[in-house]
Design a protein that fits this description.
Helix content is 51%, strand content 4%. The protein is built from five helices and two strands; from the N terminus they run αααααββ. Helix 2 packs antiparallel against helix 3.
Length: 136
């Protein structure tokens, strides 16, 4: 393919600057944007009484909310950009309230209804109580 204009070797075609200089200027622009966002974030959090929160807390909260909402882990991973389950687990923080809810659910669980079957005995008399087994 023939081009009417080509940049000298070692320069970016789009801006005519050396690649390192173009990357450096892009990095400064990104840092400036991040700084502006960080300042706005800090101000908003302070005004809401949430000083010290970081933007990354939103990712953590989002992952936790999706998992608690019953979204399958692989779907959460696709949504959040996590590539491995081990990284996703770092965001799924378990706290005391989670443990308390788990204990309550376990205490409330009564198991599935079971059929009670009397086991045959050698010599069952009227006064003996038959042995009962629970099927699992």
């Amino acid at each position: 393919m023939h081009r009417s204009h080509t940049a000298p070797v070692g320069q970016c075609e789009s801006v005519g600057r050396p690649p390192a200089l173009a990357r450096a200027r892009d990095a400064h622009a990104i840092a400036r944007d991040r700084s502006t966002i960080s300042i706005g974030w800090a101000k908003a959090c302070t005004e809401l009484g949430l000083a010290g929160r970081i933007v990354h807390d939103l990712r953590r909260s989002g992952v936790r909310h999706l998992i608690r909402g019953g979204v399958p882990r692989h779907t959460v991973m696709a949504f959040s950009g996590h590539r491995t389950v081990s990284m996703l687990k770092r965001y799924d923080i378990i706290d005391v309230d989670d443990l308390r809810r788990a204990a309550e659910r376990a205490s409330e669980y009564r198991g599935e209804p079971a059929t009670v079957v009397a086991l045959p005995t050698e010599r069952a008399t009227a006064t003996e109580t038959p042995t009962v087994a629970r099927r699992s």
